[in-house]
Amino acid sequence: MAQTGITAPQGFVASATTAGIKPSGKPDMALVVNQGPEYTAAAVFTRNRVIASPVKVSRENVADGQLKAVLYNAGNANACNGTQGDVDARESVNTLATKLNLAPEDIGVCSTGLIGELLPMDKVTAGIETLTAEGALGDNGKAAAHAIMTTDTVDKETVVFADGWTLGAMGKGVGMMAPSLATMLVCLTTDASITPAMARTALAKATAVTFDTLDIDGSTSTNDTVFLLASGATGIKPTQEELNDAVFAACSDLADQMQADAEGVTKRVSVTVTGTTTDEMAINAARTIARDNLFKCAMFGSDPNWGRVLAAVGMADADMDPDHIAVYFNDQAVCLDSTGAPGAREVDLSGADVAVRVDLGAGGEGQATVRTTDLSYSYVEINSAYST
Amino acid sequence: MAQTGITAPQGFVASATTAGIKPSGKPDMALVVNQGPEYTAAAVFTRNRVIASPVKVSRENVADGQLKAVLYNAGNANACNGTQGDVDARESVNTLATKLNLAPEDIGVCSTGLIGELLPMDKVTAGIETLTAEGALGDNGKAAAHAIMTTDTVDKETVVFADGWTLGAMGKGVGMMAPSLATMLVCLTTDASITPAMARTALAKATAVTFDTLDIDGSTSTNDTVFLLASGATGIKPTQEELNDAVFAACSDLADQMQADAEGVTKRVSVTVTGTTTDEMAINAARTIARDNLFKCAMFGSDPNWGRVLAAVGMADADMDPDHIAVYFNDQAVCLDSTGAPGAREVDLSGADVAVRVDLGAGGEGQATVRTTDLSYSYVEINSAYST
């Protein structure tokens, strides 16, 4: 049994192939199959109102708390393709259902890549043929994680070993990432025996403090989907809390991997806000800082320009005392009572990790951390010639 | 009489000097004096809750609708300097008041530059000496406009000739610019005879549709100030509407100049949104697109990646029909009914101006335009090593 990724838990097999959807000729389709005996499933989807066709299909199919397989493709988002996009997403699912002898309603589907191009259905159909061919499905979690990459430079997997049961996961996502219910494609699998309600609860709790607080560029995708699939193959029934812990650990690990591989990243920056009334206010303020391009450019330049933190946070929807804000870079005070602290301009930010802490000076127990990155030449380069 | 800028209207003189506040050794202080016979004044200030010391002083002094002079410095924002910052702003005003034999309450003060460094008061005091020396004040509007520049590459002036009276203006601002009551330093002067109430009305109406809809990087400054000063020297009393027209024309011209000189700009991009319920919703949607880094990078790459427009606008707080959004680049349809239009990927965006129009498909009379720019390597370069 593989010890990483989605095929680590019992009851799950996967396959991957190169269907020719990506112009690069790299692997671009993957399939995850839950072999049971249980088929519990839950999902969270993008909050964007412009949603991709596969999201519509997946949302319908997971509503009953059960899925037996999920089909993935990279290189084409199948978003903004009108009714033809919906038809193509359903046809992919129907083709796979026939091959696997499943009902179409028991299949989820995820796409990622360029928005606004029709899926090349001949390639997708041939890809499904390969993914389901004799001997294709097996302990191929790593190959599946590799096939769902877009501008990712490394595949992203994790596994959590619990008390007699296991939770595995894969994910992709390095750009168009901002707090939403989910902000990327992620698939979590477990061989524990859980109910759909337990799965939904664990997923909602974990994503709120992991993927929801990861903000690379303030842009929210049309395709974001996080699935949690449970086979029950171990027969072990964890408590809600045990499940929550495992799902959180996996989501947190994947979120870290996404931050580390973010488009053009040279700095991993965490922004923690305290000293305001509620957690919601703290997250508003942390997001406002994390999305500020001037702040992000300063991080790229290893420039301890704390004034930009104050200028950014002054626009945030959060209780604050504008005369008593404190800012710390890597635990060194650079601003106290909204004024520069001694040595503030000499703080060394040349390392790859920067921890920013901001106390808004309004008292209160509100606290939140957002993970973000710097804004580099590479981010601009990667994103200035994507579709053409 | 000079025919450009703040000294074009009768009753205004200006001076400029190099006080040594900018490390570059370029001009960095300016003075505008209203010689009357009237001293009407109005102002709009930053909405940021973290505000610079000069903003606090100016806000107090303009409250009575009268100012006789405004002192400017560039190279230091005098923001986030605590009570010492307030003391320094007041001391500058007091020094100038003595030199000009004015009451301190009749003087406005504006600073722009690095946040969080104390003003070098010896240099400021010497600068005021030079600005007020025998023969210094005169038709020096252009020199004043030059002295308030920071990362601006050109000075920004305009003049509006009305029926027997004139309105002149200067401005600076190329980064840390986002919709707020005002988003930069601007000084408008006129020789018309107007009341403070008329001045306030004209300024509020004009800034709402000019500076408020200019968004370079989503960052709102701590120092933004727009002054309108009227000398009444012509004795002509325009109607409110005539004044509104002139103030709007000057603000619109300066906003265009700021957009054209924005940090790292290679494209001037206008984003117009229609097909939603209210103007406020339209501006929310236009701002959301204008602030989206993926969209801005696509503009830099002349990439007609309309999918990013849909992904961005799907997160906006505006009524829309997600299945019936239309996008036009330079009047060519690239997306109709939320799906790619024929030839969409072949649209030529290589020119310096890109007009983006988005119809949200929800009907309604809401409409708004936001002016923005692309996100380029130069923007990152300019902003990644600013304070150090």
UniProtKB/TrEMBL annotation, chains A, B:
Root EC class: transferase
Recorded metabolic or biological pathway in which this protein acts: Amino-acid biosynthesis; L-arginine biosynthesis; L-ornithine and N-acetyl-L-glutamate from L-glutamate and N(2)-acetyl-L-ornithine (cyclic): step 1/1; Amino-acid biosynthesis; L-arginine biosynthesis; N(2)-acetyl-L-ornithine from L-glutamate: step 1/4
InterPro entries: Arg_biosynth_ArgJ (IPR002813), ArgJ-like_dom_sf (IPR016117), ArgJ_beta_C (IPR042195)
Site entry: Involved in the stabilization of negative charge on the oxyanion by the formation of the oxyanion hole: 112-113
GO biological process: L-arginine biosynthetic process; ornithine biosynthetic process
Protein localization: Cytoplasm
Top-level division of the source organism's lineage: Bacteria
NCBIfam families, alphabetized: ArgJ, PRK05388.1
Protein's name according to its UniProt entry: Arginine biosynthesis bifunctional protein ArgJ
Biological source species: Corynebacterium gallinarum
